[in-house]
């Protein structure tokens, strides 16, 4: 059994060919997509977070609205760039959204991807400490977030408060029980996956890795997952961690699918240059159901993960994306033994 979710980058574009021509379109359609996905049996609704771009940027109002309109589907991010975050304010927002959804939040966080602007986090008031870089700052923000989500007191109370305080040091409020165990680290390499395991976070791995050893993408990602689990075990954490991988999967079951994704049936891994080094990108899976079954059975990282996040073309609109998700959940997943 695998949990299957969708991951939306939340693009909008004023082009007449886009079904999402404004930020308002994307926000409302993402809520509708979560509602529809829950109805057809999808397990998770995840959103990407980018700043200074025509994409989703502020996740917690959206996640709260999704939580208010749904009942069972997991709601998450993949991922929040922690270079931009005030971890205490983020903890308050995240806890509120989690309580609204009755503890369904699954928050993916990370150092972030290449930006639209130079050092955009500086505009948000965040500057790395002397002798550190932005990646260090992202990890520091994450560790603070993990600590305050425990719900333990750390702030000295005012001796003359407006309202009476409970005894002892004060924690952030509201507190969302269990949210600390539902934080995922978006790891782009084997080393950062090991760090996530040491910190006691779940692992979220996408369709690219910021390193290349010459082996196929799925094998490199499977090694990353194993290193994460080894680090988790060595750290002595008690609970069982979760692991998600992202894939672009498009079953071709009608002429519209063929028109949109027929050319992707020949997709292969690729190697590019990202953030100053080689990176390996995974292929798109597109084809008839029987062909996809065989291809995905050979994907070692998908086999190793408990959660599969399907990247969706959100600009094609809610109806088409629900069609893609339904094809995966009701036709492909049972054929693979995932349902």
TrEMBL record:
CDD domains: Flavin_utilizing_monoxygenases (cd00347)
Pfam families in the cross-refs: Bac_luciferase
Keyword Transferase in record: no
Highest taxon of the lineage: Bacteria
Luciferase-like domain location: 9-257
SUPFAM superfamilies on file: Bacterial luciferase-like
InterPro entries reported in the protein's UniProt record: Bact_Lucif_Oxidored (IPR050766), Luciferase-like_dom (IPR011251), Luciferase-like_sf (IPR036661)
Record key words, sorted: Monooxygenase, Oxidoreductase
Molecular function via GO: monooxygenase activity; oxidoreductase activity, acting on paired donors, with incorporation or reduction of molecular oxygen
Annotated Gene Ontology cellular component terms: cytosol
Descriptive protein name: Flavin-dependent oxidoreductase, luciferase family (Includes alkanesulfonate monooxygenase SsuD and methylene tetrahydromethanopterin reductase)
Organism of derivation: Microlunatus sagamiharensis
Lineage, top ranks: Bacteria, Bacillati, Actinomycetota, Actinomycetes, Propionibacteriales
